[in-house]
Amino acid sequence: MSALLTLERVSAGYGHQQVIRDLSLALGEGQLAALIGPNGHGKTTLLRTISGLLHPSGGTIALEGRRLDRLRPDQIVEAGIIHVPQGDLLFPEMTVLENLRMGAYLPEAAREEARRLEEVFALFPKLRDRQGQLAGTLSGGERRMVGIGRGLMAGGRLLMLDEPSLGLAPIVIDQIYEAIATLRASGRSVLIVEENAMRIAELADVLHLLDNGSFAWSGSGAELLSRPESLAAYLGA
């Protein structure tokens, strides 16, 4: 399988504080890869670096061979990487529909807006009923659905999700994971940050364990599920 996303010895951080160090990975077309590990060890920083919100201090990032690490965030979106950040980050005084349509601002996405809306509503049926409701009045789970849906409206080759289940009730987490499973089954390439390693292991093709800014372990979901005790110290199990 040829790589869609390639990172080679990527380092990044904030000011003089280096958070991630010499990270390399390859994500294939149609794969779901998960970043797992303790809080504060670089998972969100890595997503922010890929999407251009942080500039790497070293290394290269490429999408199908095209260098991204020198591009602006808007250029990276145009190249095909969509980043759904942690938290809601919606426009609370706008309706659900208006928030979703904000994701379809690129020319190609605008042309396909109606079709993509139907895809989002099929993935999250509750949003069809809520489309005229102000985003600020939604429940936490509904806001998370809108955030993911807005990212899907932009299209792209790779969808990056930062802790999509964070702070949600178990029944809502099940709904979010059903949607992620549907995306994976449709062939969508996904890179996801998730604290619940055992849950994402059921879906992921590959998992990367980040510890102090470096990969301490990489392997398949099946490998993690077959010997979770080997990673217990890192995962807090």
In words, what does this structure look like?
By secondary structure, the protein is an alpha/beta fold. The chain has a single domain (28-50, 82-235), classed as P-loop containing nucleotide triphosphate hydrolases (Rossmann fold, 3-Layer(aba) Sandwich). It is built from 11 helices and 10 strands. It has helices at residues 43-50, 73-79, 96-102, 107-111, 113-123, 125-130, 140-153, 170-185, 197-201, 221-226, 232-235; strands at residues 3-14, 17-28, 32-36, 58-63, 66-67, 81-84, 158-162, 189-193, 206-211, 214-219. The strands form 2 sheets. It has a 6-stranded mixed sheet, sandwiched between helices. The radius of gyration is 17 Å and the shape is globular. The two termini are 33 Å apart. Residues 5-237 form the ABC transporter domain. One of its GO terms (biological process) is L-amino acid transport. InterPro entries: AAA+_ATPase, ABC_transporter-like_ATP-bd, ABC_transporter-like_CS, BCAA_Transport_ATP-bd_LivF, P-loop_NTPase. This is Amino acid/amide ABC transporter ATP-binding protein 2, HAAT family.
Brief synopsis:
With 237 residues, this protein is of the alpha/beta class. The protein has helices spanning 43-50, 73-79, 96-102, 107-111, 113-123, 125-130, 140-153, 170-185, 197-201, 221-226, 232-235, and strands spanning 3-14, 17-28, 32-36, 58-63, 66-67, 81-84, 158-162, 189-193, 206-211, 214-219.
**Poorly predicted spans:** none
Helical residues, percent: 25-40%
Q: Identify the strand order in the major beta sheet.
A: 6-7-8-3-9-10
Highest-level CATH class = Alpha Beta
Q: Superfamily at the CATH H level? A: P-loop containing nucleotide triphosphate hydrolases
CATH level 3 topology: Rossmann fold
Instruction: Give the overall shape.
Output: globular
Largest sheet composition: 6 strands, mixed
Helix/sheet category: alpha/beta
- β-strand percent reads 25-35%
Give the terminus-to-terminus CA distance: 33 Å
Average pLDDT works out at: 92
**Radius of gyration of CA atoms, rounded to a whole number:** 17 Å
Number of helices: 11
DSSP summary, beta strand count? 10
Name the helix and strand elements from N-terminus to C-terminus, one letter apiece.
EEEHEEHEHHHHHEHEHEEHH
How many domain units?
Answer: 1
- CATH architecture grouping: 3-Layer(aba) Sandwich
